[in-house]
C-alpha cells in the first residue's frame, strides 16, 4: 500500500505530464487549472499525512497509558481521556512514594523512641554501676568488675549514638520522594501539553479543506515562553555535569562565597 | 542560637517538610510551623512570631524565590533569616537567590550535617 506521500509523487508525475501536453496544445487556461489542482493537492496530502502521524501518536499515548493502567491496577474504569489517564498514573506514583516515605519515617520515629529508651536505661545503669564501685572495695571477687562494666557501657553508648545517626540518615534519604516527585510533575506537565497540542493538530488536520495553507498553523507560544527573562524554578537537574549546574553542596558554597557570602 | 525560636518550614512535599522538621528536632528546635507554598506561608509570616524561615523554591502557587522577595520587601519581615532548601541547582538560580537576599542555600538531596552546618552559620553571622 502506498503512503500518502507516495501517492502524491505518482499524482505529481501524472499531473506534470498532463500539464506539459496541455501547454503543448496551447490551452493556458486549462494549464492554470492543473497548477491550481496541484497546489491544493499538495496541501491536502501534507495535512492528511500530519493527521495520520498525529493520530498514530495519540493512539500510542493512549495504548501506553492503558498498558500502564492494567499493570498498576489502580481502577477498572475505562477512560477515554488518555492524557488525564497518564497524568493520573503518574500522580499515583507520587502518592504511593509519598505514603511509603511517611510509613518509613513512622517506623524510624518508633525506632528513635526505642533509642531514647536505651539512653534512659543507660542512665539508670550508671547508678547501678556506682553501687558496684562501692561494693568492689568490700569484696575481692568483684575486683576489676567496675572498670570492665564501665568499658562495656561506653561501648554500648557509642553504638546507640551510631544507631541514632543511621536512623536519621534513613529519614534524610526519604528526600528521594521529593526529588523524583518534582521530576514526575514536570513529566505530567509535558505529557498534558503534548497531548493537548496533538488534539489541536488532529483538529487542524481534520479541517484540511478549510485551511488555506500550512503557514496558518498557530504560532508556537513555546518559543515565547523560552524567552522569559526572570529566573524560574526548573526542578531537580538531571544532567549534573552541565557547566551551568552545580553538582554538590560544595559548589553551591563556593559560588556563594565568590558572591561575598 | 535560641532553641525556642519559631521556625516556618515551607515545602509542597510533606515528605520534605517532615525530614526538615525531624532534623531541626535533632538540633533541639521543636517549635516548627509548616506551610505548603508561598501563598499559605506569607499570611503566617505577616501574622508575626516567626523567627526563621526555611523554604523550598519550586512550589505551586507562590514559589520560594517570590516568597523571599515578599519577605525582604516587607519592613516587618525584611530582617528575617531565610534558608533555601531546594533541588534548583543552576548557578544563575543560586545567584538570583543570593541577590534576592537569601541567608543560606542548601541543594537537595542534602545530609543532616550540611543542614546543621548552614543553620549554625546563619545564626553565627547574625550573632
Write up what this structure looks like:
- The complex is a heterodimer of chains A (261) and B (127).
- With 261 residues, chain A is mainly alpha-helical.
- Chain A has helices spanning 4-24, 28-72, 82-138, 145-173, 176-206, 221-226, 249-258.
- Chain A is built from seven helices and no strands.
- With 127 residues, chain B is an alpha/beta fold.
- Helices cover 45% and strands 17% of the residues of chain B.
- The interface between A and B is large, with 37 and 36 residues.
Give descriptors for this structure.
heterodimer, A: 261 residues, rod-shaped, B: alpha/beta, 5-stranded parallel β-sheet, 5 strands, globular
Summed up, what is this model?
The complex is a heterodimer of chains A (about 260) and B (about 130). By secondary structure, chain A is an all-alpha fold. Chain A is built from seven helices and no strands.
Shape descriptor of chain B = globular
Distance between the termini of chain A: 69 Å
- The tally of beta strands of chain A, per DSSP, is 0
The percentage of residues in β strands of chain A lies in: under 5%
Low-confidence stretches of chain A: 72-80, 212-228
SSE run of chain A: HHHHHHH
SSE succession of chain B: EHEHEHEHEH
- The chain-level mean pLDDT of chain B equals 95
How much of the sequence of chain B is in beta strands? 15-25%
Structural class from helices and strands of chain B?
alpha/beta
Biggest chain-to-chain interface with counts: A-B, 37 and 36 residues
Query: What summary fits the major beta sheet of chain B?
Result: 5 strands, parallel
Could you tell me how far the N terminus lies from the C terminus of chain B, measured between alpha carbons in angstroms?
A: 8 Å
Total of DSSP H or I helical runs spanning 4+ residues of chain B: 5
Compute the CA-based radius of gyration of chain A: 36 Å
Average pLDDT across residues of chain A?
Answer: 79
- Which strand order spans the largest sheet of chain B, edge to edge or round the barrel? 2-1-3-4-5
- The percent of residues in helical segments of chain A reads over 70%
| Poorly predicted runs of 5 or more residues of chain B | none
